[in-house]
Amino acid sequence: MNDITMTLQADHLILEALKEDISSEDVTTNAVMKESVKGEVELICKEDGIIAGLNVFKRVFELLDAQVSVEFYCKDGDEVQKGQLMGKVTGDIRVLLSGERVALNYLQRMSGIATYTHSVAALLEGTKTKLLDTRKTTPNMRIFEKYAVRVGGGFNHRYNLSDGVLLKDNHIGAAGSVTKAVHMAKDYAPFVRKIEVEVENLDMVKEAVEAGADIIMLDNMTTEEMQEAIRIIDHRAQTECSGNVTKENIGRITALGVDYVSSGALTHSAPILDISLKNLHAV
Fold first, then answer.
1. Average pLDDT, stretch 268-283?
2. pTM, to two decimals
């Protein structure tokens, strides 16, 4: 996540997280630290995984105090091990204490997503299938969570509703049919937008192909249904598999030869990576 993205898209979200944690003051810190004292604290990994979100972690402290300095001994995407010293934060001890939880919340959450994504992406190695995330993200955390997916080796599906056309079951219901929905989308959306259609059975697959869909999402189909759907599509559209895809069941998809597989689990079910700030001391 670069500096421009951080300033334009992330800073206001980080500030809101800090305001949530400090509504008026940090009573505990102010009670034990009456004045500014320079200190240092160590960033330590407590379990193996893939690190993601270091710049966000750093930005939390910078927004509290521009004088804080953060030194990292690893970078986003690195494999880290339990007990590893990943960096040090130096500055006003009051700032280190007040920013600790918010900074760690971001880093733990993002690293957990990167770690889980990495483990799922590894199961697709050697195939042409790309692993995608979804919009099943934590409110106000999407920019961080989708970034973490990329760090873990996955790819981003559309970022939000303004980013692309995806005609799901209720859109099709509102339009009246797959064909009508696709034709309406072609009339309305800019020509540079691809049109994706979610289908739940083989009749919908046939209709989506004939209507001219660019991408056809096979949603919650059996392996046999997906095989037949791919035969029907016959490279006339790109293919995507979706529907409760996890690390435990993605194996059934790897041999199908679809272009994409999307998994909401990457962002909604990844456990955090345990990380701590330890050994705070004055310097």
1. 97
2. 0.95
Catalytic residue among 130, 158, 168, 206: 168
- Among the listed residues 62, 196, 198, 240, the single catalytic one is 198
Residue % of the chain over a pLDDT of 90: 89
Helix, strand, coil share (%) of the chain residues, nearest 5: 45, 20, 35
Distances in Å between the Cα of 31 and the Cα atoms of 15, 22, 25, 42, 181 are 23, 15, 11, 23, 62
Contacting residues for 127 by C-beta, under 8 A, at least 6 apart? 254, 255, 257
3, 5, 8, 14: CA torsion to nearest 10: -80
Q: What is the mean pLDDT of residues 146-172?
A: 96
Catalytic residue, chosen from 101, 130, 186, 193, is: 101
Band (pLDDT 50/70/90 cuts) for residue 154 is very high
Q: What residues contact 196, with CB distance under 8 A and at least 6 apart?
A: 164, 165, 166, 167, 213, 214, 215, 216, 217, 240
Q: What is the mean pLDDT of the chain?
A: 95
Among 46, 135, 136, 206, which one carries the catalytic annotation?
136
Q: Does residue 94 come out as left (phi exceeding 0), alpha (psi in the -120 to 50 range) or beta?
A: alpha
**pLDDT value at residue 214:** 97
219 is catalytic: yes
- Supply angle C-alpha 5, 11, 14, rounded to 5: 130
Active site residue 198: yes
Q: Is 48 helix (H, G, I), strand (E, B) or coil?
A: coil
Is 168 labeled as catalytic in the residue annotation?
Answer: yes
Helix (H, G, I), strand (E, B) or coil at 94: helix
- Per-residue tokens: 89: 């934060």
